[in-house]
Amino acid sequence: MSDTITPDVSDRICKHMNDDHSNAIVLYAQVFGNVPETETAIMESIDPEGMNLSVKVKGENRPIRVKFDHVLKDSEDAHHTLISMVKKARNPQN
Question: Where is the DUF2470 domain positioned along the sequence (predicted)?
Answer without folding.
Answer: 10-85
